[in-house]
Amino acid sequence: DSRRAVVLGGELRTARVLRGEPGPGTRIAGPAVLELPEATVAVPPGWAGAVDADGTLRLTTTRPPAA
Predict the structure, then answer these.
(1) What is the mean pLDDT of the chain?
(2) What percent of the chain is modeled with pLDDT above 90?
């Protein structure tokens, strides 16, 4: 893993960068950038998830619903 400056939601942040296919069980919390072989995924702050047994990245919000 490495870190780099990124703009997410109009704000400059330091994000974790993962390169290549993450294996099952890999946990990801925003801010993060996943550099996959065929796509790039930006995970904003307030989102997190994991790679399931089939290799699918499943993300959900960790923020409470807006009132």
Answers:
(1) 92
(2) 87
Cα 30 to Cα 42: distance, rounded to the nearest angstrom: 8
Task: List CB contacts of 3: < 8 A, sequence separation 6 or more.
Answer: 14, 15, 16, 17
Q: What would the DSSP string read from start to end of 3-65?
A: EEEEEETTEEEEEEEEESPPPTT-EEESSEEEE-SS-EEEE-TTEEEEE-TTS-EEEEE-SPP
Residue type, 17: V
Query: How confident is the model over 13-40, as pLDDT tens digits?
Result: 999 999 999 999 999 999 999 999 999 9
